[in-house]
Amino acid sequence: MAVTAILTAVSGRVADFAPLSGTAGKPVVETSAGYLRPPVLLSTVPSVLSRQQALETAAATAAPTTPGAAAAPQATAGAAAVAATPYFTYTIQPGDSVAGIAAAFGVNEDYIIWNNPHVASNPDLLLVGATVLVPTVNGIVYNVTVGDTLNDIAAYYQVDVSSILAFNAATVPSADSVVEGMTLVIPGGVPAAPPAVVAVVEEPYEPEPLPAAVEEDPYVPPPPAAPISSSFIWPFYGAISTYFDWSHPGIDVDGFGAYGAPIVAAAGGTVVLTAWDSWGYGYHVIVDHGDGTRTLYAHLSDIWVSQGEYVSQGQAVGALGSTGYSTGAHLMFNIYVGGVAVDPLAYLP
Q1: Which of 349, 343, 348, 347 is nearest to 249 (CA)?
Q2: Number of domains in the chain
Q3: Residue 242: pLDDT band with limits 50, 70, 90
């Protein structure tokens, strides 16, 4: 009777799991309405919390195999998962700290900070779900770049080359086999201290002293020009179209409607130049008056005197024209005193 009752009870429980509905004989599992599962953070190794629970469980159940024998050292939780590599990544869990992570995995907390620049900037701020690189020994995880040598790396991290080779023997058989892209663990490595910040003390601004005043010699006017004996007359009568200035060393006398009219010497003297140029004065004549003065007659249409010839005041030297750099019939008339151009209007009647 007892056996029959047990079978009946079991049959009843099996009936409770009969398919509600489904396809091809597969049961449909019904879930409770409104049940939300809490978020789960995954990590590559056991969390610090689960590791601590494993340590407590091991301590509670461990017993010596022989009376009086000392208890065996507790195994590090997660050791089997990380034994094959000298470093691993750990996903930060709620409540984690740099000190707690370092203690859980048996390394100095400095090596958590040194191997994780994003943590080094603020070790008190760990973001849940972020990862940190954890070496399995107190050491620096270093990625070899172009130009690196093992001697340079060892010198920088203040360790011996032999210690690096010994720890990385599986991947680095010799110092010459270090190549770009390798990842090394530098056991006991200590990064160089950042350069000291030197305070720059700015000197107070002091203006440059003004140069001593230089006493200038009092202005001495140039000696007056030697008196001239020439008394000039107008070489041609007409309206003044351009006056004397620094860029125009004479006056232009308009000759509109008088092309070919005679141009006369303003004073008696010797013709020292009769010349032609197409870009400036055109046909022109220069007369030296023997007292340090000279006169120039430019843009002539024809020259009627010869170089070396003496001309009297009022004698024609050429014909009015528009040669050279000229835009119409006119005479350009210059007076030079001591080789310097002066305003002709100051010497003409």
Answers
A1: 343
A2: 2
A3: very high
- Where in the sequence is the domain holding 330, given as residue range(s)? 240-346
Beta partners for 318? 263, 303
Boundary-marking domain end, from 156, 187, 218: 187
> Cβ contacts of residue 277 below 8 Å, gap of 6+?
284, 324
Classify residue 56: in a domain, yes or no.
no
Q: What is the biggest distance separating any 2 CA atoms in the chain, rounded to whole angstroms?
A: 172
Top-ranked range on mean pLDDT: pick from 85-89, 155-159, 177-181, 329-333? 329-333
- On the question of pLDDT at 37 being above 50, the answer is no
The label of the residue with tokens 């390798």 reads 182
Residue written as tokens 């590090």?
A: 76
CA–CA separation, 309 and 304 (whole Å): 11
Q: Does residue 220 lie within any of the structural domains?
A: no
CA distance 303 to 324: 14
Establish if 52 belongs to a structural domain: no
Distance of CA 330 to the CA centre of its chain: 63
Same domain assignment for residues 257 and 342: yes
CATH of the domain at 261: 2.70.70.10
Taking the C-alpha atoms of residue 266 and residue 313, their distance in angstroms, rounded to an integer, is 6
Does the pLDDT of residue 49 top 90, yes or no? no
Helical H runs in the chain? Answer: 2-16, 48-61, 79-82, 98-104, 109-114, 117-120, 150-156, 161-167
User: Residue 155 sits in a domain of what CATH number?
Assistant: 3.10.350.10
CB 137 within 8 A of CB 187: yes
Say what percent of the chain tops pLDDT 70: 70
Q: What is the pLDDT of residues 163-220, one digit of tens each?
A: 999 888 888 888 888 888 888 999 999 987 766 656 667 777 778 787 776 677 676 6
Residue 311 has pLDDT above 90, yes or no: yes
- Higher-confidence residue of 247 and 287: namely 287
- Asked if residues 161 and 177 have their Cβ atoms less than 8 Å apart, the reply is no
Residues 84 and 174 in one domain: yes
Q: Is residue 66 part of a domain?
A: no
